Amino acid sequence: MYFRLLFLALFLAITFNQSLSGAEKPFTVVVDPGHGGRDPGAVGATAYEKNIVLAVALKLGKLIETNNKDIKLIYTRNTDVFVKLEERSRIANKAKADLFISIHTDGVNNKKVTGASVFTLGQDKLKENIEVAKRENSVILLEEDYEQRYEGFNPTSAESYIMFEFLQDAHMDQSIAFASLVQNGFVHKKRTDRGVRQAPYWVLWDTGMPSVLVELGFITNPDEERYLKSEKGQNELTHCIYDAVVKFKDDYQRKSMAKASGDDTDSSPALARANREVEIASGAPVYKIQLFATRTLLDNNDKEFRGLKSIDYYQEKKIYKYTYGAFATEKEAATERKKISSLFPDAFLVAFKDNKRISMEEARSKP
Ligand SMILES: [Zn+2]
Predict the structure, then answer these.
(1) Cα-to-centroid distance, 297 and ligand 1 (Å)
(2) Complete domains list, the chain, with CATH
(3) I want to staple 175 with a disulfide (CB 3.0 to 4.6 A). Which of 103, 120, 203, 275 is the partner?
């Protein structure tokens, strides 16, 4: 009996230890108050964007630090200083954060416009959304050496935004899920609802985790400016973001627990076959299925691969492109692509020869 108890205790200790080790890295949130220092952001009749967003960011941080010891909190700035855009994303990427929240207020010439919105990365056809992104991205121009730093990206030129079209955001679903939680909170607090939207924000593009940009309201509307400056307004808005963070973290942890406890052992015939080492004579083309691309390198077991094994990547410029499987014929690769189309509807075939990417035409012309 003693033995059995001891055994049970040992078993529990091991199991418990395992589940703990699965959650070794704390859930990390980066809070990014926009602008700062010599960059005031949008300017109202009496207030600057940089001060309002810093106040809300600090309130948010305080709520997290007081109530959620299990969350690691990082600010990109917690004082009135100028921080480069690329530094903001670098901080988040270096910390391997689980969530990036950039906080801003809107501003337009029309004083009647009001409302809150939450943006995720995307290429929206709406001209209005691109204009907001252009305005926020323009802080780059305040950095003395921006031409060298941003690889020729000019925040004011339309051509510069084409690069966003070729990049899939690996974290889009999660970013939208979090954005919706925040926006629902705003709506609940009777803020004018401008919705969850997509726009090509540079800082969202450069962060390798679920990331959103919150526009708290319009500093250029007198009523909203008063609200944004007030203690009541700032507390309400902060609580909306805070509640969303806690809900998002709980969902995230529940999902990774479920994954760790066993439904990860997917061995459908399709996957097993793709795992098979392909023997391909050197000089012959290899076909792979490209899933998506990111700015920061993901681990092979990253949840973004949705359980697929046999993941590989290649690099073009500063972008990592991920592929799945390796096949000797285009037909085999195409069949496999169909099988995973429910997981990755936009996946497409790519060809390689001697580990170099070649065009599909080139691959087909080789016997
Ligand atoms: Zn801003």
Answers:
(1) 28
(2) 25-258 (3.40.630.40), 269-365 (3.30.70.1070)
(3) 120
The number of residues in the chain equals 367
Number of H helices, E strands in the chain: 12, 11
What distance in angstroms lies between residue 48's CA and the mean position of ligand 1's atoms? Answer: 10
Euclidean distance between CA atoms 332 and 337, whole angstroms: 9
Q: What is the pLDDT of residue 277?
A: 41
Q: What is the pLDDT of residues 28-57, one digit of tens each?
A: 999 999 999 999 999 999 999 999 999 999
Residue 116, Cβ density class (10 Å: 0-12 exposed, 13-18 middle, ≥19 buried): buried
3-state secondary structure of 113: coil
The per-residue pLDDT for range 194-211, each reduced to its tens digit, is 999 888 888 888 888 999
CA–centroid distance, residue 238 to ligand 1 (Å): 17
Q: Separation of 173 CA from ligand 1 center, angstroms?
A: 24
- The answer to whether 243 and 94 have CB atoms below 8 angstroms apart is no
Give the predicted TM-score (pTM) of the model.
Answer: 0.68
